[in-house]
Amino acid sequence: MSMENGSKKWRFQAKNSQQQQEALTTANIRGVLGILMGNLDPKDKRPVIPLSHGDPSAFPCFRTTSAAEDAIVDALKSAKHNHYSPSVGLLPARRALADYMNKDLPYKLSPDNVYLTAGCSHAIELALTVLAQPGNNILLPRPGFPYTEAIAASCGFEVRHFDLLPEQGWEVDLEAVEALGDENTVAMVIINPGNPCGNVYSYEHLKKVAETARKLGIIVIADEVYGHMAFGSTPFVPMGVFGSVVPVLTLGSLSKRWIVPGWRMGWLVTNDPTDLLRDSGIELNLSDMEDINDDIDFSLKLAREESTFVLPGTTVGMKNWFRISFAVDPATLEDGLERMKAFCLRHAKKQTILN
């Protein structure tokens, strides 16, 4: 540090620009959920319906398989893994994961091709940090996982968005990808199974994505909701207790999250609530609703009036849409859908109800 007018002055400056700092702040889904929580009516004694969350662990029907739980307990009790591990992960765990993935690959991975991370967020940080160079840009999906955009901005990337097409099952707009790419584009990100849309890409579409990336000379970063993130030939696999991977995989119990295919839908009131089971992304038709300004307003008022949370689409780049999660038990889901139907009927324009 240096001295100026008798006071100390720090020599370093913040790495991120104001715009990057704002991106990191506004991309916090948990922050949005905190705002919704603060908007609840304390007089409403009904249980809160959390259709906004994406973590099924809170509900017994989604409990982790006992084989995985036992493997973690056994790894902890063995005392074989209670030490500093290599930054890339323990060799037995990396070997087990390579063997597991080799079952579906036309080529063979070695343990040296596997890098274990502390969750998918860590994997995103590593992949983008490796690619970051001054002047580079990266192509991200819209809607998409906001954490990826925040990390890309903090790494200095110019972020460019390609749209996902709701009328085509949220497939990638490949023409837009080709139009956005240039000599400074280093990668594009796809999320499959989709987050936040709940879609699952066909093999044929993934092949077209790969062909488009090859034409542009860029890397595809495939961020998979249920298990691993692949970067080039090196899989990044998030595991909480690295030493427990071997018995879990040996027992064949590597679990995947329940994924629901997504289709575009119209306004809620015009459909039976059970139709929502086909979709995780719902578009709002604001012209048919009274006193609802946008998706943020919809989400806040739904929380206030029905103690039911949905995630406003603005959070993931889709204004005037909202996302619901099916990671709740069936009775809770049915209750939440009925509350949403009641809310929409209450805010519907009279002419809409008559029609």
UniProtKB/TrEMBL annotation:
<feature type="modified residue" description="N6-(pyridoxal phosphate)lysine">
    <location>
        <position position="256"/>
    </location>
</feature>
<dbReference type="InterPro" id="IPR015422">
    <property type="entry name" value="PyrdxlP-dep_Trfase_small"/>
</dbReference>
<dbReference type="GO" id="GO:0004838">
    <property type="term" value="F:L-tyrosine-2-oxoglutarate transaminase activity"/>
</dbReference>
<dbReference type="InterPro" id="IPR005958">
    <property type="entry name" value="TyrNic_aminoTrfase"/>
</dbReference>
<feature type="region of interest" description="Disordered">
    <location>
        <begin position="1"/>
        <end position="21"/>
    </location>
</feature>
<feature type="domain" description="Aminotransferase class I/classII large">
    <location>
        <begin position="47"/>
        <end position="272"/>
    </location>
</feature>
<comment type="similarity">
    <text>Belongs to the class-I pyridoxal-phosphate-dependent aminotransferase family.</text>
</comment>
<dbReference type="InterPro" id="IPR015424">
    <property type="entry name" value="PyrdxlP-dep_Trfase"/>
</dbReference>
<keyword id="KW-0663">Pyridoxal phosphate</keyword>
<dbReference type="InterPro" id="IPR004839">
    <property type="entry name" value="Aminotransferase_I/II_large"/>
</dbReference>
<dbReference type="Pfam" id="PF00155">
    <property type="entry name" value="Aminotran_1_2"/>
</dbReference>
<dbReference type="GO" id="GO:0006572">
    <property type="term" value="P:L-tyrosine catabolic process"/>
</dbReference>
<dbReference type="InterPro" id="IPR015421">
    <property type="entry name" value="PyrdxlP-dep_Trfase_major"/>
</dbReference>
<protein>
    <recommendedName>
        <fullName>Aminotransferase class I/classII large domain-containing protein</fullName>
    </recommendedName>
</protein>
<dbReference type="GO" id="GO:0030170">
    <property type="term" value="F:pyridoxal phosphate binding"/>
</dbReference>
